[in-house]
Design goal:
Its cofactor is [4Fe-4S] cluster; Mo-bis(molybdopterin guanine dinucleotide). The protein has 5 domains: about 1-60, Phosphorylase Kinase, domain 1 (2-Layer Sandwich); about 65-135 and about 350-545, Rossmann fold (3-Layer(aba) Sandwich); about 140-340, Dimethylsulfoxide Reductase, domain 2, CATH 3.40.228; about 590-850, Barwin-like endoglucanases, CATH 2.40.40.20; about 865-920, Arc Repressor Mutant, subunit A, CATH 1.10.10.1100. The mean pLDDT is about 95. α8 (about 210) links the parallel β9 and β10 (about 215-220). The strands form 9 sheets. An 8-stranded antiparallel sheet has the order 29-28-32-33-31-36-35-34. It is globular, with a radius of gyration of 27 Å. The longest helix is centred in the N-terminal third of the chain and has 19 residues, at about 80-100. It has 30 helices and 38 strands. The protein is α/β, with parallel strands linked by helices and about 950 residues long.
Length: about 950
């Protein structure tokens, strides 16, 4: 066995991992105890990385050879690299020759390595001469970039993870860190235990696991963050809680901001935001002075924020207005203080460093600055680089949909799932004359639109660097060789460039380190200067933070400690930006505010996490969450189907009551795309996932779309004929079956398909329609689920539209267990049949009940309950039963619970939920 230190490919925390491998096979993963981002901890996703790289998973999901479609809609056929790159060069070259360089575009990813990003940026802006290169980081971090540059002068988060250990007050806004950045949240929990006087304020429309830990929870209305921040500053000015000396010495523009916030009184802000005036005063006092409220004390306040601020048509204003609070109170440039934007992807920061956005150039240079363009041209040995602004993510796909962009190159991202307004995105992918998708996986929906598929390496196979949220650069290392014919992303871009322009001298690289050295040279003298850093230093001393200029031994943990900022006069700038409501306010026709967000155990479009049934244990299937009052008003029971409709589209999915959601609001997880949730409209148009609903309206400053808010209508769906099929399948076959089932999903107005299981692999298919479908469709479904065998038992009543099929597994010496099941027509029995199969309970005694429509559950079978602890598969039922026997304080009862069931003792991601269950359970008297 070999061990290789690398970095997790999921969120921006940037956790170090140790990969265990035997030959060409990854066999295990654990947290790196020496990595300063996580000190050995991993979340539920990170702990299962090796399972997503298992050979049986990879052979069903990986793209292993170049593939070409002869015509759109045809099945892709295998080709060779020489032919694939030749075709790509010919088609891109033809488009450029006929229509100019801006007729092509590149859409890349925050999951690429810095070296990959750099080569793609140089390919587009240097070789081809177009700035039409953008990234999915535009969907998550561009508002943070714009906010930092507008106020502090540079895209540089000034704080670090260690600041949570020094903060007197934590202000978390627009972030469910407990789920989105779980390892960082473990550090917050540790810090609060070590410093009981620390105050935690959480502002979020949903009462998330993060909000549950708060000393003060502010359930503001969606999109009203700017109003909240202006209101807090109004109170601070009224009470004399600002730092006039800091404002005078280190900032400009405060008079305009002071005039703007004068009208943001507590009463007005409370009315707009839906908050209590007294809570606003408390929040302002804690932010300015910590828990003591002592005007003479300058406590340290750290703000943590993410997509709730960024994904907005006012994203720049939200970010800048929060930074205003830090500048006004001097809460920056010292331990425990500062505005700290949490990046969503593992290398969104690295992409920003190399200029991998349509408006940037290498080393945080601005495309609009002629001097910056000249510097990059000189570095690349070119007379110039193009000055015309490039198309950002939304603009790029709108241009392709309009026919202006003829050829698209998409690398390591899945816009057919993740982009807003999917109708436009899919029209773009269909209308573009040539689409290249460079991917490690064959399963993302975008692959269905590709004329050419190029296989890329992924985690465990790549070499290079990434930069996490605290500006820390870590090595990514290969533990196993690339499978099949997969190539590294930077290598594919270089090979394409040399085919497109034979003999060019721009891409002499033979290793990722050679690319990185050129990137390093571009940073000399810039705010992110890493001229003192090298691969060798990263090998010897581990991950390092920038800036780390030549002559320095280590990077800088905190920025602006001297009060000087990277602006022409060295002063930070207050941004007086007015509050504007969301782009799509609620109205009588669309009375619900839809928000989106992450699930605890899933990642993005689930190309990787979606291969593991165990990661669906916590949230098993797609749903829209509504407040119980709204459920009652709409006469909905849990699990009943609803139409969720916006101005752009409509999808059908189950409704679920949740106290975490405020009335007149709705929540759908961002992960549910067309790969797992699909259907068709009444006109026959295919629909795909939550982003069929979201708006492409974007912030004018950052061009980041408002994925966090859309006005929707929720109506009960009248789809009386339903179907549920689930089966245990061979490990080497289940994911391939799931892909085939995707082809059947569009035959229903509602359909979902997800894996399940821990030790075994299962697939669940659910659907609903107005009338019973063609029996041939059900025959096909039964065959895929292994229900076409001689030992399958059946029942059918075509007149009543009822159909049943079940297969029992009989092992000598053991009780028979249900192995596969289909319920069609009346699916009420699923409430007990589904756990009967999933939990592997004896089923022989219930054989007759399997075929009785609406049969009630046997009285001696209790449902297992909802999974809470993914690592150890502990359910809420088991936790509640255990808590009934625990006594003492909350900490004592938690310790007793963990001692008995061990839940929360592995990755710790479930600890916030355990605490909520603790509070709900009545304590046992001592």
């Amino acid at each position: 066995m070999t061990e290789t230190r690398s970095t997790c490919p999921y969120c921006g925390v940037g956790c170090g991992v140790v990969i265990e491998a035997e030959g060409a096979r990854i066999t295990g993963v654990r947290g790196d105890p020496e990595h300063p981002a996580n000190f050995g901890r991993l979340c539920s996703k990170g702990q299962t990385l090796h399972l997503t790289a298992a050979p049986l998973v990879q052979q069903q999901t990986r793209l292993l050879h170049p593939m070409r479609r002869a015509t759109r809609g045809a099945a892709p056929e295998r080709t060779d690299w020489d032919s694939a790159l030749g075709l790509a060069a010919q088609r891109f070259g033809d488009s450029i020759a006929a229509h100019g360089p801006d007729a092509v575009g590149f859409y890349v990813s925050g999951q690429l390595l810095t070296e990959d990003y750099y080569v793609f940026n140089k390919l587009a802006k240097g070789l081809i001469g177009t700035n039409n290169i953008d990234t999915n980081s535009r969907l998550c971090m561009s508002s943070a970039v714009a906010g930092y540059k507008l106020t502090l002068g540079a895209d540089a988060p000034p704080a670090c993870y260690d600041d949570v250990n020094h903060a007197d007050c934590l202000f978390i806004v627009g972030s469910n860190a407990a789920w989105a950045h779980p390892v960082l949240f473990r550090r917050i929990e540790d810090a609060r235990r070590a410093r009981p006087g620390m105050k935690l304020i959480v502002a979020d429309p949903r009462r998330t696991d993060t909000a549950d830990l708060a000393d003060l929870y502010l359930p503001l209305q969606p999109g009203t963050d700017v109003m909240l921040f202006h209101g807090l500053l109004h109170i601070m000015l009224r009470e004399g809680w600002t730092d006039a000396g800091y404002i005078e010495r280190h900032t400009t523009g405060f008079d305009a901001l002071e005039a703007l916030v004068r009208e943001h009184t507590p009463d007005r802000v409370a009315q707009v935001c839906g908050l209590k005036p007294e809570d606003l005063v408390t929040a302002a006092r804690w932010f300015a002075h910590g828990a003591s409220g002592d005007p003479g004390k300058r406590a340290a306040t750290l703000s943590l924020y993410c997509q709730g601020l960024n994904q907005s048509s006012s994203g720049t204003a939200k970010n800048a207005s929060l930074i205003n609070l830090h500048l006004a109170t001097g809460q920056i440039g010292k331990p425990g203080a500062g505005p700290f934007s949490l990046t969503g992807q593992p290398n969104a920061m690295g992409g920003r460093e190399v200029g991998g956005l349509a408006n940037l150039l290498s080393a945080h240079r601005d495309l609009a600055n002629p001097q910056h363009r000249a510097e990059v041209a000189a570095l690349w040995g070119l007379p110039s680089v193009p000055g015309k602004p490039g198309l950002t993510a939304v603009e790029l796909f709108e241009a392709a949909a309009d026919g202006a962009v003829k050829a698209l190159w998409i690398a390591c991202t899945n816009p057919a799932q993740s982009m807003p307004d999917q109708r436009t995105v899919r029209r773009a992918l269909q209308r573009a004359e040539f689409v290249v998708v460079q991917e490690a996986f064959a399963t993302p929906a975008t692959c269905d639109f590709a004329d050419l598929l190029l296989p890329a390496t992924t985690w465990g196979e790549k070499e290079g660097t990434v930069t996490n949220s605290e500006r820390r650069i870590s090595r990514v290392r290969a533990a196993v060789p690339a499978p099949g014919e997969a190539r590294h992303d930077w290598r594919i871009a270089v090979d394409f460039a040399n085919r497109l322009r034979p003999g060019n001298a721009l891409f002499p690289y033979t290793t990722p380190e050679a690319v990185w050295l050129e990137h390093r040279a571009s940073t000399r003298g810039r705010d992110l200067d890493i001229s003192g850093l090298s691969y060798a230093l990263l090998e010897q001393q581990g991950p390092q933070q920038w800036p780390l200029p030549e002559g320095e031994a280590t990077g800088r943990a905190r920025l602006y400690e001297d009060g000087r900022f990277p602006t022409p006069d060295g002063r930070a700038r207050f941004a007086a930006l007015p509050y504007r409501p969301p782009a799509e306010p609620r109205e009588s026709r669309f009375p619900f505010a839809l928000t989106t967000g992450r699930l605890r155990d899933q990642w993005h479009g689930m190309s990787r996490t979606g291969t593991l049934g165990r990661l669906f244990g916590h949230v098993a299937e797609p749903a829209v969450q509504l407040h119980p009052q709204d459920m009652a008003r709409l006469a909905l029971a849990d699990g009943e189907l609803v139409h969720v409709t916006s101005k752009r589209g409509s999808i059908v999915l189950p409704a679920q009551a949740s106290e975490q959601i405020a009335p007149a609001q709705a929540f759908i997880a961002m992960h549910w795309g067309g790969e797992v949730l699909s259907g068709r409209s009444s006109s026959g148009e295919p629909l795909a996932g939550v982003n069929a609903l979201t708006t492409s309206a974007f912030c004018p400053g950052s061009k980041q779309p408002e994925l966090k808010h859309a006005a929707v209508q929720v109506l009960k769906a009248e789809l009386p004929w339903s179907l549920l099929a689930l089966a245990w399948l061979p490990d080497g076959h289940a994911l391939a079956v799931q892909r085939e089932l995707r082809a059947l999903m569009a035959d229903f107005p509602f359909a979902s398909c997800v894996p399940f299981g821990r030790e075994r692999t299962g697939v669940l298919f659910r659907a609903a329609v107005h009338e019973p479908p063609d029996p041939a469709l059900l025959d096909r479904l039964e065959a895929l689920m292994g229900l076409d065998t001689p030992d399958t038992q059946r029942y059918a009543d075509r007149r009543q539209g009822q159909r049943r099929a079940a297969r029992l597994q009989r092992t000598p010496g053991q009780a028979a267990r249900l192995d596969a099941l289909l319920l069609a027509g009346d699916t009420r029995a699923q409430a007990w049949l589904k756990p009967l199969l999933q939990d592997g309970l004896p089923a022989e005694a219930y054989a007759r009940r399997l075929f009785m429509p609406g049969a009630r559950a046997p009285v001696d079978e209790a449902p297992r309950g909802k999974q809470v602890c993914t690592c150890l598969n502990v359910s809420d039922t088991a936790i509640r039963e255990c808590l009934a026997r625990c006594e003492g304080s909350e900490e004592q009862r938690l310790a007793q619970l963990q001692g008995a069931l061990r839940c929360g003792t592995q990755c710790g991601s479930c600890v916030p939920e355990l605490r909520r269950l603790l509070r709900e359970a009545a304590p046992v008297p001592a």
